Amino acid sequence: MSMMQIHNEEKQVEYRKGHFSNEEDELIKKYIKEHEKYNWNEVSVFVGTRSSKQCRERYFGHLDESVKKDPLTPSQVKLIGEFIKENGFKWAKLSRKLNSGHTPNMLKNKWHQQISK
User: Fold this and answer.
1) Can you give the residue ranges of the Myb-like domain (predicted)?
2) For burial by CB atoms within 10 Å, which of 51, 77, 96, 107 has the most?
């Protein structure tokens, strides 16, 4: 297992790198479900193997139920191209405008996939 070391004031904490396990995903979802208010440092401590940044990115990029995993439609891909011509590569703004449930990173990846064809 590849590890990255993070130093805090009192001790050295080691966090995993690479793919999240099903257990880690379930711990993140459980914490979010059980706590009305939370912060990512607390989620990280609860999971025990991931940093707050890793937990936040995993949740908003993959685990959040509002994130759509469906492929983009041809009309959405066309809108991406039009948006970029007018606004540049502002993926978060584009994600809000499309309101499709696709994350900014998903839109960016789809765009780069399209232009590499």
Assistant:
1) 12-63, 64-115
2) 107
Distance from CA of residue 13 to its chain's centroid? 23
CB of 27 closer than 8 Å to CB of 47: yes
The tens digit of pLDDT for each residue in 90-105 reads: 999 999 998 888 889 8
SS3 state at 19: coil
What are the chain's domains? 3-63 (1.10.10), 74-115 (1.10.10)
pLDDT in tens, 69-88: 888 888 888 899 999 999 99
Which residues touch 4 (CB under 8 Å, ≥6 apart)?
A: 14, 15, 16, 17
Distance separating alpha carbons of residues 94 and 79, to the nearest angstrom: 9
